[in-house]
User: What shape does this take?
Amino acid sequence: MRYFAFLVLLCPLFASAAVDYQISITEPDQHLADVTIRLPATQAGPFDLKLPAWRSGKYQILDLANGVRRFEARLVDGAPLQVEKTEKSTWQLQVPTAGTIEVRYQVYANELNQRTRHIDDTHAYINASAYLMYHEAQRKEPVTVSLQVPANWRSTSGMTRTGAHSFQAADYDVLADSPIETGIHQSFSFKADGRDYEVVFWGQGNFDTAQTVKDLQKIVMQASSIWQGYPYQNYLFIVHAATGARGATEHLNSTVIQRDRFSFRKREHYLEFLSTAAHELVHTWNVKAYRPAELVPYDYLQPNYSKLLWISEGSTSYFQNQLLLRAGLMTPQEFYTDLAKRLKRFARTPGREIQSVAQSSFDNWISLGGDHADNFSVNIYSEGYLVSWMLDNFLLSNSGLKANYRTLHNELYQRFGKTTAFTAADVQQIALDLTGKPLQEFWAAQVESPLELDADALLKAAGLQLVKPKSTEPFSGLTVQAQKDLAEVTKVERGSPAWLADLSVGDQIIAVNGLQLQTELAERLKDFPAGSAVTLTLFRDGRLLERQLTPQTQPAGNWQITPVAKPSRQQKAYYQAWLGMDLPAAK
Assistant: This one.
């Protein structure tokens, strides 16, 4: 019971909230923290403490309790309590009488890229879902959290600050959606439209802090192009720059964005960062202020199934570059290039014929990666983007350009910004209110069924056109990773020549037509006329095999979107209503 020897020293740090948390960064080099919780037990009997099995923004079970050890509990001034772990994320205490419970346990925090828990000698990233337990009956009680950290560290969070290293929140749900960044970092602040913003950079890399803060200020000013009003008074951007880091997560009034430390300088890389920042900002409305009813309130231990995650993620992806475009941070051509890449990727995803975006949303909790995902599934981000684009067209076309998808999302915020939860029926009702036309037929055909996208028609309405390269290149349907003198298959596209040749993920191709592979496989296949069979020699699970592959051809290079030469007045008006700016002239 060594932990309780320190409780008397920690007591002054606890505030008067119903539930008080203390996190002590005891051994940062070993990624360890000690957690102390004080909370009331109103009656005798079993008392369950739980740690979430997932965190908001990541619709997959992560089993966050796997880092918890040395769990102990007792009543204040009382004997230790009997404790039994009854489920992977639940600890049950036997409380003999009502009183205040004190709990201590250790957390191992070495998972940076999941954006849940990470501690080292320079910082600690604290997502409460991965550190702090809760009692279900007290989820709506006020909480405080205090930190004990090295002397040169600084702490920040979207929560209300009560001290240099202490914060308070209205309840556990706010705490779980308000990560804390503490450590050695650079901090900048600015004001925009009466709101306070902070930007924190942890890590070293080739980023330009002054330019980044300036550009983030431009992005936040574009929120009014979609919504009337804000769900926050202050907002925090947390930027992690570390080797191999990637990804981002939205929170109640903050976000954490992770990038490889040297992925900021190149224009294309910096645009990716800005797009991610815009994506997470959009989430402050779309997911945090209003979200699918199945996610309200969060069940922290179980999957929260919904067929509307495509709105949460895909619609957010749809808006992100529109904010950059309107802010002048992305050129129209860069916007078109991104859209053209999405259209090409959609065309090369066989799963679009199999799975609807609603099914993908529901199954996101158990989604797979790799070629099976591409061949038999769609992605809530990319597919949701395209469905959002089609829904935008539905609104524009049926409202005489008076309403668009931004209008619909503002209505979602106005109607559900306080109650949070909305349903598919609510979205359909808003569309009906805006256009006078029922959305059910569209919903059944494009949301509940595999998407049928007519990109040419959507582009034409806006005075744009899709241009595919006239030159061709060999197409096998193989994606490979080159190793020394071999190509290891990582994906096989369904229905492609490679699929028909019975090639499989993991095959190691070592020769073509009996000659050792000494260059990239794609380059080697260019030596043969399209439609002619070649013999691939390969290892599969240690067995030497041969397969007959007959490559075909496909357009070479990237797809492009350009303005039409002579757009009509209607096309110009549509473009203006769609993106909120004038259609650029064709070059």
Notes: The CA atoms of residues 325 and 332 lie 7 Å apart. Confidence is low (pLDDT under 50) at residues 1-15.
